[in-house]
Request: fold
Amino acid sequence: MTRSGARLQAAIADYLVHLRIERGLAPATIRAYGGDLAAFSVDPFVARGWDKSVEPATRYLSRSAAGAGPHGRPLRSTSLRRRAASIRGFYRFAYGDELIETDLGARIDLPRQTRLLPDPLDIEATNRLLEAAGGAAQEAAAKGTAAPVTQATRLRDRALLELLYAAGLRISEALNLDREDLSLDGAFVRVIGKGNKERLVPVGEVALEWLVRYLDGVRPTWLARQPEEARRGGPLFVTSRGGRLGRQAAWTMVKRAARDAGLGDRVTPHTLRHSFATHLLEGGADLRIVQELLGHASISTTQLYTHLSGERIREVYARAHPRA
Reply:
């Protein structure tokens, strides 16, 4: 490795520490930036001249857009924009720490952002998805009988999906919850979102009912399989072995419920967050309140849902008005 390349690697490591400690970005965001910058740093042309000119960065981004990478596929516009933002942010950090003499980041333009509209479920489809997640657990819980593992798992899955829809959580936010973050008496959940920002989100009666069933009937049995010190507090949603439920397991569970509900492949854990926001706005909720509940830093992100609701309103008008 050249001396310039070694300096680049060290500077990137310092930048990622800066993002974690000083800016408090979420671990997933830091991993994404780290992956972008790792790919950037191994480009030979970049490694030789990254600190002298903006040309290595712009050339690298042009090649990424054209699909000149190791897999020969162009990056999607959203991925290219994030990669450009990662590189620009790194350069501005390097300039601020006097690692480079010129603010090269100011010369990097971000590709135009394509705003994709959310794809929510309507209320009837949402109910079908939630019912499918519960499966046989609903009957077992109603009878108050001890359910087999498969039914216990479905009871947990129903409680998780009910919370995602009731509170509009990102799947990472829900899976990172500990037991003490949920207040059954107060009917709210304490969420740590992007940028380590905390918010309190109300939880409706139906979701609370399913959470109580899971907390009373499933979670204690599964946690008992962990060492005693790991049982105190601990994760809200756990596996049958008592560990914290992971993203891949949650993804698989949502896909299974969507298939059982006849909703096809378009449903993801984030679909319930989209549906939460859309249904609130269609029900007359204030846009600023929805922004706070979702934990959006910018109102412009939440406004995507107003456009979607407007489309729904026009559809209803076209069907219902005699002179439409």
Observations:
- Residues 3-107 form a domain with the DNA polymerase; domain 1 fold (CATH 1.10.150).
- The mean pLDDT is 84.
- The longest strand covers residues 188-192.
